Amino acid sequence: MDIRVLKSTVKVLVEEGKGILAADESTPTIKRRFEIIGLESTPETNRIYRQLLFTTPGIEEFISGVIMFDETLRQKTDGGIPFPKLLSDRGIISGVKVDKGKVKIPNFPSEEITEGLDGLRERLLEYKAMGASFTKWRAVFLIGQKTPSAVCIESNADLMARFAVFSQEVDLVPIIEPEVLMEGTHDITKSEEVTYRVLKTIFKRLMDYKVIFEGMLLKPNWVHHGLDCKNKASNEKIAEATLKVMKEVVPSQVPGLVFLSGGDSPEESTIHINDMNRIDKVSWQISFSFGRALQQKVLQVWMGDPSRIKEAQKVFYKRARRNSLARTGQYKEEMEAENGE
Ligand code: 5MM
Fold this sequence. Notes:
This protein is an alpha/beta fold. The protein has a single domain, classed as Alpha-Beta Barrel (TIM Barrel), CATH 3.20.20.70. The chain contains twelve helices and ten strands. It has helices spanning 3-13, 27-36, 43-54, 70-73, 83-89, 120-129, 150-169, 188-208, 235-249, 266-279, 292-302, 309-326, and strands at 19-23, 63-68, 93-97, 102-105, 108-114, 132-141, 173-180, 217-218, 256-259, 285-290. An eight-stranded parallel sheet has the order 8-7-6-3-2-1-10-9. A two-stranded antiparallel sheet has the order 4-5. Strand 9, helix 10 and strand 10 (285-290) form a beta-alpha-beta unit. The termini are far apart. 2-O-methyl-1,6-di-O-phosphono-D-mannitol binds at residues 22, 24-26, 29, 97, 101, 138, 177, 179, 260-262, 290-293. InterPro entries: Aldolase_I_AS (IPR029768), Aldolase_TIM (IPR013785), FBA_I (IPR000741). It is an enzyme of class 4 (lyase). It catalyses: beta-D-fructose 1,6-bisphosphate = D-glyceraldehyde 3-phosphate + dihydroxyacetone phosphate. This is Fructose-bisphosphate aldolase.
């Protein structure tokens, strides 16, 4: 392991004014996203869509890295350029989701653990040879009457720590994504308590495995009321509560927090990043690694129609730019007005 390689990758990923595009939807997830726009997901339609994103003019100003799914990392542009090469030629680094998805835990209804350690060492070497510099592993935690359970949190923490050490062993920066889901009726206080518990357990396990904090990134959820909660928290409260938990649990050596959007709207997601960057000076960079919040409007404009690719790319460029401004607290909601830039 070469810590200098890990540090230099991290430095690029959290460069000021830039964030990560999460385009690593697995086969079932991209199928669901395409269903909304009435499009069938096939390896070819998936490729055309990812090409739309990756060839958007100017995004390298705002996007430092792209997380891909295994299928995408192996795909090429119409002109035969492998996606990792296309991106690196534009100064964007490639990452890959290496977990193999979630499975139900017997005896723990509604809880899941993430799989993917079998054969991981070999896959990591292959991904690295294909041009990946970083990796990602996601685990989910559902808030309910009795969840998340200690078994769910502890087993996922252990798996994540092992994923992280295997990645660092071959100089790939691990992004650890423990997502406390927004689904549910819980209020923001419950989300704060659960997010704290989950992250505390994970960082303890990362420390046990001697994960190098300087060579990893955390991809957390924000502390947020449940989607079906009647008592909705304000954006200010969400930013404050999120920073409070992060300060309590995230070691200062971790270079950056690259937030997921978790189903919040693109605008709200940008506001949360902006607010957190305005509240306080903190030791880590506060950035984004959005899937839906960067892509939702792009899909709605594109609709699978080749004649709408340029228009969809303009939408992607604007969304990426607004998130870039949020990295330094310079985003303003007025920018959302049609001609607001
Ligand atoms: C883009 O979706 C990623 C992969 O999810 P699946 O394994 O369910 O297909 C996901 O990990 C994503 O990177 C994060 O959830 C962030 O995306 P959002 O939409 O929450 O910003």
